[in-house]
Every structure is written in structure tokens, then in C-alpha cells.
Write a structure and sequence with these properties.
The complex is a heterodimer of chains A (about 425) and B (about 325).
Chain A (H helix, E strand, L loop, with lengths): L1 H21 L19 E7 L6 H16 L3 E7 L2 H14 L6 E4 L3 H8 L11 H7 L7 E2 L2 E2 L1 E8 L1 E5 H6 L9 H13 L3 E4 L6 H14 L2 H10 L6 H14 L19 H6 L3 E6 L3 H8 L3 H7 E5 L13 E10 L6 H9 L2 H9 L17 H12 L3 E3 L1 H4 L2 H16 L4 H13 L1
Parallel strand pairs in A: 1-2, 1-3, 8-9, 11-12
Antiparallel strand pairs in A: 3-11, 4-5, 6-11, 7-9, 7-10
Helix pairs in contact in A: 8-10, 8-18, 10-19, 18-19
Chain B lengths: L5 H10 L8 H42 L2 E2 L8 E2 L3 H8 L1 H32 L6 H13 L2 H11 L5 H8 L16 H25 L4 H9 L4 H29 L3 H6 L2 H5 L6 H11 L3 H25 L15
Helix pairs in contact in B: 1-2, 2-14, 3-14, 4-8, 4-10, 5-8, 8-10, 9-10, 10-14, 13-14
The chains are: A alpha/beta (about 425), B mainly alpha (about 325).
């Protein structure tokens, strides 16, 4: 009967947001003049996703304290909320209400466009010009209609994390630069009886990222950009991505029964397979260093053997071989947040704060001047590759928004499970765009 | 609020002099009627308020939102009528979820019922260590769903205890991807649910058995009935109301099952339909695909199915047990 209660709890949540909509009425829009900054005491509520005790959470606590010390009129109430809860339920419900948090986690892409359309966010274009210039093209992900609505504090491209020792034992001289070399490496790794590539298909997105990379290789940058804004997926390159993926899966590069394997956070996950010397490669983003650390039985060994290389190029594909997939985390201010919110946001992406963030090792900073904080060699190679990439495409599920993203990931997982087709992925995306 | 102390109101109401002189008998009757209404209103208001606020109003909202194409951003404006309902029944994954719910409903009844009955009849006899066995039978039901879910998830993992035990017993051919094999997973889940909830059926039936008067079984014994005959012709008929109530609770619980499935199943397997139920489908689509209007439509479908099932069950099977309570006064 507890099940009954849970189900009704979910219903109750729908209804809370319902009541909230009914009572919602936006307050005044007037912005306080520059001179009024820091005159009156304000409290900023801050929702971030560093919910677990660790260097990330500790660092945000320190940053909030430091800012209040600099500006005694500002009190910051920070709350760390688990990403899924924050993004799927807490934040949407709070934004529907008349009392959203002032500054909150923002993932950019399709989501920020929807939020702007609903008039939830503060236009900060004028105030953050310097910061945007310092961050560079990554800041574009937090734009809508050419205006800036948020800023990133972490950004990185994904690539293949690999075990250098295994590569050596298998006689692979250098990290693969194209898929032929990758296929060759897979064959050699099978010969020494290790799992060539670990994939956490159980969690869906780690599997879907393989398709994203094939799409990145198959589609032109213009096609991808147009797909993100118009949600049009008529270009045949999206079907080709699925075909290339299917060909790749057929070479059996992944561990057995990958459909049951979770992505990260426990020793049986794809992360665990790589961290504990059972698999040789894993496709993953820049945050992987931290998650590998948490599941490794022997951290010293992990640090010695772990390396990183960019996703190989695919010969015969029209896409830009130097383009990369990436994504990041940022923050945005609510429409009616006090002006101090923008100041705090600027502080968060200032080179000093960013350097401190980089030193926590939880992700790559975005601001120029913070690079010195990146000490880990694998992270340094990602940093170099990120600045060397000709174009960084945001994770497709984020770029297309949750609805298309979810349908796309489900259909890609079906290919992995053996009962999907390249055409069905595109059909699912088109159907979801209409939903 | 008048609800806080109805007895005071009642006293005041009864002692108050009539506003206009009236024949004694009818004034007393008016007082009686008023008193009755005070009682009804005073005693039911708090419950009705809670029920309306937290059950009826949300249901109304869920239905209202289900008529919109709405992603939870901004107010719902894109009215689509019953399109969301049509979409749901066109989605093969939702149909899979329906099928899985049906498997769980019937599987629970067919498997748990006989097991629970047998165990309850056994535990109803006097033997040493009966209390310990009763306790053991009930333990799984007391554990939290999430705890049980994670426990079985670990036991049934690829390199988990169950597969390892099968290997070492020389039964390696039985090793399975219990929670990832698309054809197998729903049966694995049914097994876990049975393990968890059979204790509830046992305890209900034991309570029912303790209400069977000993005189009847003794009389049957004197008449020369065997133990089996007594169970078949005395105990079972007297236990029938309890069995029907258990069936009802089991059915409703199975239709709405969420937490155990959510915790135990792999997201990829769930999204392929192999282990989805209506409730997990609702959350996956409502929150994760951010289709709030659609999610509400699924919630309403889940509600209507449960509601109709409950009504039919009460109308045809619980009629005698609930006589007067729901179906009107017994004639």
C-alpha cells in the first residue's frame, strides 16, 4: 500500500504545480539602478547540483561565504539538489511558482530556449559582456535569440578514456585517430582478453552518446545547428548516424550484456569496468576523472594507467573531423531576482573563482586565466583538445530539449538492444518534436 | 471551528429555546434534526476538507492538464482535447506497460493466493516454533520497498550472488541476465513482488482464520470429518470474505505498482517496455521526457482503470461483504 501512497505523491506533485500556476502572478519588472547595488540587504537563494558531500559542494559553500564577505549586504542561501530531481521536478515546479530561486543550475540548449520563451529568466546581455568575451564560444549555449541568459562555469568535450597499460600490452602504438584504427585496436584488445570498450547502456545516455558522435561525423555543422533550433531532422545524415552505429555495434566492441550495465557510480558500472582494469576504453565527458576515482579500488593504479584521446574521425563522412561533442554546467538568474544575482553570477565565472573550481578536479573551467588550476594530465589533454576543436556541438539530448532528447535516447538504446533501426530513431525524434 | 468541539455545539443546539412557539413534539423533532446535522457536518468536515483538497482537486487538475500539450514551462495554453489519450494508446511502450500490469495483477493473485492459503492453514495449526515461522513469513512485507528492490537488484546482477550460486552448483546453464533479458525481466519482477507481498496475504488470512469459530470445526470433527474436509467445507467458506478483501487490495496495489519496479529495473530495459508499468511510464514520460500534459493523461488513464476495476470488483465480488456500506442498505 506504500506503492499507492507513492503514486499519489506523484499526483500530488502535479497538483502542487497546478495550484502554483493558479496563484502565479509576476511582480514588478523594474531593475534597480546601478547605484542601488549593495545598498539594501538581499538574500539570494541558490540551487546548484553539488548535492553530495565532496570537493564540489565544499567549494560552492566557500564561494558563497567569500562573496558575502566581499559584499556584506548579500546573504546567500545555497542548496545542493541531485541533478535529476533538480532538473526534472524541483526547478520546473519552482519556476512555475511566484517564488523561484534567484540563481540556479542551467544546462543551456533547448531547455534555456523554452525557459526564455516562458519569460522565466533575466536578460543579462549588457551586464556580462566582459565575462562572455573571456569565456568565448562556450557561452553561446546559454543564449537564446542572440541574448545572454546564463553563464557556464564548467565546459568540456567528450572523448575516449583509456587504459594505457592495456594498449601497450595489446601492441597498440598510438591512440586511434580514425575509426579504422579504432576497429583495429578493438581486435587487438580482444586478443589479450579484455573488454575493448565499456558502455553503460543501462542508463541510456552513455549509449546514446555513441550515436551523437556518429551524427557529428555524418552531419554538417549547419545541419546540426538548424536541427537544434528548428527541430527538423529530415537530413539523411541522421539515418546514416544510426547505420554507422549499427555497423560499429556489429563488430562487438562492447562488454557482454551491456544493456544491464549502469553508466557510473558503482563498481559494476561501465566506469567501474574501466577504473578497475577490466575494460580498455570508455566514451565519456570531462567529469569522468572524478567518477572514475570514486569507483576505483586502487586509485594510484588508475592515475597511472588512465589516458584520454578525442573521438576518432570517420573516413568518408562529410562532418568536420575536428568538431567535438561537449556540454557544460552553468547558472542563470530568475527574471525577478535582485540585481546582486548578476553580480554573483559574474563572480562565479571570474578567473580566480574558476581557478579554485578547477583545483577541485570536479570539472574543467571555462574562463581564460583559470587553466593553471587544471593539474590532472588527462584533464589537461581535454582542455587542449577543447580549445583545439573547430566546433563544439552541445550534447544532442540537451540541444534538442528533454522531449526529443528522451525519445531519441530510447530509440538509440533500442538499436543497442537489437530491436531498433536507424530509421526508427529519426521517426521517434520527429514524433517527439510534435508532442 | 465548530468541528473542534462538536459536543458543545450539540448541547447549545439542544438547549436553545425555539425561536417561535411551536407544538412541543415538532420542536423536539427539529432539535433532533438539527443535532443530527451538527453531528454530520462537525464530524465529517475535516475529513471532507482534506479529501477535497488533496484528492478531488488534484484529480480535477490532472484531468484539466491532460487536455493540453504542455511541457511544464509557462502556463498550459495549447489545448489538444483528448489527443494525449489517443497518443498513449498508440504508443507500443504504453501497451507494454498495460500488459505488464495485467501480468502483475493476475500473476499476484494466481501465485500468491494458493501459497498464502497453504502457509496460513499450516501456521494456524499448533506446533513448536509457530511464532517464529509467522514472523519469518511476514518479514519481507515489513521491509521497505526500496530496500528490497536494491537487495534483489544486487542479488540478481550479472555477477551477483544468484548467478554465482547457480555456477557453483553446476547449474551454469540456468545463469540469466535476470533484470536485463527483455523477455525474462517481467517474470523476475513478478517473483520479487511475490516474495515481498505474500507475507501480507498470509497475515490477512491468519487474521481471518482466527475468526473461524472453534465450535464449528469441533462439531465437524465430532461428525467424523477429516482435517482436509474441515478446511474445505468449514474453514474456506468462512475465510472467503478475507480472501476477497485480499484479492481486492492486491489488485489495486498491482495496478499502481511503482517503487519496486522503479528501483529494481534498468532504465534502458524499462524504456524498451520490457519492465515498464503504467506508473513508471507516467514518471518517465511526465518528468523525464518533460511531457507534463501527456503525463497527466497517463495518470488519468491509470486512475480510471483502477477505479473501474475497483467498482467492478466491489459490485460483483465484495457485494455481500460490504452490504450496506457502499452498495446501499441491505433489503
Amino acid at each position: 500500500m506504500a506503492t499507492k501512497r507513492r503514486a499519489s505523491a506523484v499526483l500530488a506533485l502535479f497538483m502542487t504545480s497546478a495550484l502554483v500556476v493558479a496563484g502565479c502572478n509576476s511582480g514588478g519588472d523594474e531593475e534597480p539602478a546601478e547605484s542601488e547595488l549593495y545598498k539594501n540587504p538581499v538574500t539570494l537563494t541558490w540551487w546548484h547540483n553539488a548535492s553530495q558531500d565532496g570537493p564540489g559542494k565544499t567549494y560552492w559553500e566557500k564561494v558563497a561565504k567569500d562573496f558575502s564577505a566581499l559584499h556584506p549586504t548579500v546573504t546567500i542561501q545555497a542548496e545542493g539538489i541531485e541533478t535529476n530531481q533538480l532538473q526534472r521536478t524541483r526547478l520546473p515546479a519552482a519556476l512555475l511558482s511566484s517564488d523561484p530561486p534567484d540563481i540556479f543550475q542551467s544546462w543551456g540548449g533547448g531547455e534555456i530556449r523554452e525557459q526564455v520563451e516562458a519569460d522565466y529568466l533575466k536578460d543579462i546581455t549588457e551586464q556580462v559582456k566582459d565575462e562572455v568575451a573571456n569565456i568565448g564560444s562556450a557561452a553561446e549555449i546559454w543564449q537564446a535569440n542572440g541574448k545572454q541568459y546564463g553563464l557556464p562555469y564548467r565546459m568540456g568535450i567528450e572523448g575516449i578514456w583509456y587504459n594505457k597499460d592495456m594498449f601497450q600490452r595489446a601492441g597498440i602504438a598510438a591512440p586511434p585517430t580514425n575509426f579504422d584504427e579504432l576497429n583495429d585496436a578493438v581486435t587487438k584488445l580482444k586478443a589479450i582478453n579484455v573488454i575493448p570498450i565499456a558502455v553503460g547502456a543501462g542508463d541510456k545516455w552513455p549509449a546514446a552518446h555513441w550515436w551523437y558522435n556518429f551524427a557529428l561525423r555524418a552531419c554538417s555543422v549547419d545541419t546540426l545547428k538548424k536541427a537544434s533550433t528548428d527541430l527538423s531532422f529530415d537530413d539523411p545524415c541522421f539515418v546514416k548516424a544510426g547505420q554507422d552505429l549499427k555497423t560499429f555495434i556489429d563488430t562487438k566492441p562492447f562488454q557482454n550484456n551491456f544493456i544491464a550495465t549502469p553508466g557510473q557510480n558503482d563498481p559494476t558500472s561501465a566506469n567501474g569496468l574501466l577504473a578497475n582494469g577490466k575494460a580498455a576504453m570508455e566514451l565519456m565527458g570531462d567529469w569522468n576523472k572524478g567518477t572514475l576515482d570514486t569507483v576505483a579500488a586502487d586509485k594510484a593504479a588508475l592515475n597511472k594507467f588512465i589516458g584520454w584521446f578525442p573521438v576518432p574521425a570517420l573516413s568518408g563522412s562529410p562532418g568536420d573531423p575536428k568538431a567535438a561533442l561537449g556540454g557544460g554546467d552553468g547558472f542563470a538568474c530568475a527574471k525577478n531576482a535582485p540585481a546582486e544575482c548578476v553580480e554573483f553570477l559574474k563572480y562565479l565565472v571570474s578567473p580566480e573563482v574558476q581557478k579554485g573550481y578547477a583545483e577541485t578536479g570536479t570539472g574543467l573551467p571555462v574562463a581564460k586565466g583559470a587553466e593553471a588550476g587544471v593539474q590532472d594530465p588527462a584533464l589537461r589533454s581535454i582542455l587542449e583538445a577543447t580549445s583545439g576543436a573547430t566546433y563544439v556541438q552541445l550534447w544532442l539530448d540537451t540541444a534538442f530539449g528533454s522531449t526529443v532528447g528522451n525519445a531519441m535516447n530510447d530509440a538509440i538504446v533500442a538499436i543497442f538492444a537489437g530491436n531498433g533501426t536507424p530509421e526508427k530513431v529519426v521517426d521517434a525524434m520527429k514524433a517527439a518534436a510534435r508532442k | 471551528m465548530t468541528a473542534t468541539n462538536p459536543s458543545l455545539d450539540l448541547a447549545g443546539g439542544a438547549d436553545a429555546p425555539p425561536a417561535r412557539p411551536r407544538p412541543g413534539r415538532s420542536s423536539a423533532r427539529a432539535g433532533e434534526t438539527r443535532r443530527k446535522w451538527f453531528e454530520i457536518i462537525g464530524l465529517t468536515t475535516p475529513a471532507v476538507l482534506v479529501y477535497v483538497t488533496f484528492v478531488l482537486v488534484p484529480m480535477g487538475f490532472a484531468f484539466y492538464y491532460s487536455l493540453f500539450r504542455w511541457r511544464g514551462v509557462g502556463k498550459p495554453t495549447d489545448y489538444v482535447g483528448f489527443d494525449n489519450y489517443v497518443l498513449a494508446f498508440q504508443d507500443p511502450i504504453f501497451l507494454d506497460a498495460l500488459r505488464n500490469n495485467a501480468i502483475i495483477v493476475f500473476g499476484s493473485l494466481v501465485i500468491q493466493g494458493p501459497i498464502a492459503l497453504a502457509v496460513a492453514l499450516l501456521l494456524n495449526r499448533n506446533f513448536r516454533g509457530r511464532t517464529v515461522f509467522r514472523l519469518l513469513a511476514f518479514v519481507p512485507y515489513v521491509l521497505a520497498e526500496v530496500t528490497v528492490g536494491i537487495m534483489w537488484k544486487l542479488l540478481l546482477a550479472d555477477a551477483g550472488t544468484v548467478n554465482a550460486m547457480l555456477e557453483s552448483l553446476g547449474l551454469g546453464f540456468l545463469v540469466q541476465a535476470w533484470l536485463a533479458d527483455l523477455d525474462l525481466v517481467i517474470w523476475t519482477l513478478l517473483f520479487i513482488l511475490t516474495w515481498k507481498y505474500v507475507g501480507f496475504a498470509i497475515i490477512l488470512l491468519l487474521a481471518g482464520l482466527s475468526n473461524v469459530p472453534e465450535e464449528l470445526t469441533e462439531a465437524a470433527q465430532i461428525d467424523g470429518a477429516s482435517w482436509w474436509q474441515i478446511q474445505r467445507h468449514v474453514t474456506l467458506p468462512l475465510l472467503a470474505p478475507t480472501i476477497r478483501i485480499w484479492m481486492f487490495l492486491s489488485m489495486i496495489g498491482s495496478l499502481q505498482i511503482f517503487d519496486m519496479i522503479w528501483v529494481t529495473s534498468v532504465p534502458a530495459v524499462r524504456s524498451l517496455g520490457a519492465s515498464a508499468t503504467m506508473a513508471t511510464y507516467m514518471v518517465d514520460n511526465g518528468f523525464f521526457a518533460r511531457l507534463w500534459g501527456y503525463g497527466n493523461a497517463v495518470a488519468v488513464i491509470l486512475f480510471v482503470i483502477s477505479f473501474v476495476a475497483a467498482l467492478l470488483f466491489q459490485r460483483f465480488l465484495l457485494r455481500r461483504d460490504l452490504q450496506g456500506a457502499i452498495t446501499g442498505r441491505a433489503k
